Amino acid sequence: MWYKPGQTKDFVATLKRINAEAAKLVTGLPRSTSGAAAEVETNLRPTHLRQAHRLHNAATCLLSAPQEYPLHQKFLEAAALTFPRRQGRATHVTPLDQLAHAFPDLRNNDGHLVVYETIQLVDSSPPWDEFEPLETSIAESKDDAAQKDDHDQLIASLEPKDVVAYNDGRSHRHGARWHRPRHEDAPTRPTRSRNRRIVICVDNQAAIRVVNSTGPGPGHAQRIEIRCLYLELKEKLELTSIKLQWVPGHVEIDGNELADEAAKEATKATDDESIKQGLEIERPNTIPASRTALRQHFKTRISQGWAPEWKNGKTGAQRRKLDDSPPGPSDFKLYHGLPRRAPSLLAQLRTRRSPLAHDLFRRRLHPTGLCGCGAAETLEHVVLSCDQYEHQRRALRRGMKKEDLPPDDIQLYISNGAAS
C-alpha cells in the first residue's frame, strides 16, 4: 500500500491501531489504555507524523542523489509538473509525483526546488589512493580555545611569510579575512613561496571534524571541494602545511573580530548597490542546502505538530490532567535505568491504569475502590497523604533531595526522574 500524505486515511487508521497496540505491549499497559497516551509514554509519534517523516527523508535522499542516479532526474521532472498535466484527460498521479509535491519546505518562495547538496553514494577516491589528512586542532573546551595568550603564541611562532586566515559564518552572514603576522593588517592574499604555512581559524568544530572524513554522507560535496583546494594550494604555493584551528567566536581575538566585521560588511553589500560594486558575493540561495539541516528542521516541525494534537485529542484526558507537558523524549527518559518491572508500573500509574483500588474500581474490577485506611485509594492519596506509606514517602523525598516539596503536587513526583 502506497502512503499518500493526507489522503490514505484507511491505511493510516489501520497502522494507528497497530501502533497503539505495540506501545501498550512495550509498556505493559492494559488494553483499555488510551492509544494516544501509550504513544506519549513510549515517545512513539502518531502514525501519520512518522509516515510524513519517512517520506520527507525519502524526498531529501532523492534530491541529494548524484545526477547519474536513475530516480534523481525522474524526481526533478515530477517536481516540475503542474497538475492536471493535460486538460480534459484523466491524469494518473504516481507515488513519485505525490512525493515531489508533498513538502513545501523543499521549495523556494518562487516555487522551485531548493539548490541541494549532492551526496555521492560511494567514495570518489579509490582505496589505493593514499589519503593525506589535513592538520586540525580542536581544544578540549571553549575556555581553553579562548585563551588569548595561547593564540598570541601561535601567531608569534609563525614566520613572516606565513598566513593566518579567520572566517565567520553563521546563518546568512559569511566573512573572511587574511592576516599576515608581524605585518600590516590590511587584507592580502598568499603568494608563492617555499616553506610556508597557512593556518585557518574556524569558529565551527563540526566543519573541522568532517574535512578528513572519506565516507559518503552530509557535506560530502563540500569535503571533496575542500580536499581539491587543499591539494591545489599545497602544489601551487609549495606550502609546508595547511592547518585548521578551532577558535570560538566572540572571545576578543583580533582576527575573529575582523572576520565578524567583514561578514557584516558583506551583509550590507547585499542590500546596498554602492557597496556591492567591486565585491564578489555568494548569495545564500546559491549555497547548496544541507540535507541534515533540512531533515532536522522537519523533525522539529513534526514534534511541534504533535503537541497540539495531543493537547486537543479526544482520548488520554486522564494522562493530560496528571502531566500537561508536551510529548517528547523527556517522558521516555523517565524509564531509563529502572528495574525490569518498574517501567510497566510507572506507565500504569501515569496513565491511570494501575493496580490501585480506585483505578480498578473505575474499570469495575474492585468492589469499593477504598484504601486500607478508608479513603479512596488514588495515586494522589498513596503518594501524598496516606499514613500507611509515610516511611516510604520520606525515603522518596530524601532520594529526590527536595525535603520541602509541596505536599499536594503529584506532578513533581510522577514526572521526576529521581522519583521514578
From TrEMBL:
InterPro entries registered for this protein in UniProt: RNaseH-like_sf, RNaseH_sf
Protein name listed in UniProt:
BQ2448_7603 protein
In terms of domain of life, where is this protein from? Eukaryota
Listed Basic residues bias regions: 171-181
Q: Which GO terms describe its molecular function?
A: nucleic acid binding
Segments carrying the region annotation (Disordered) are: 171-192, 305-331
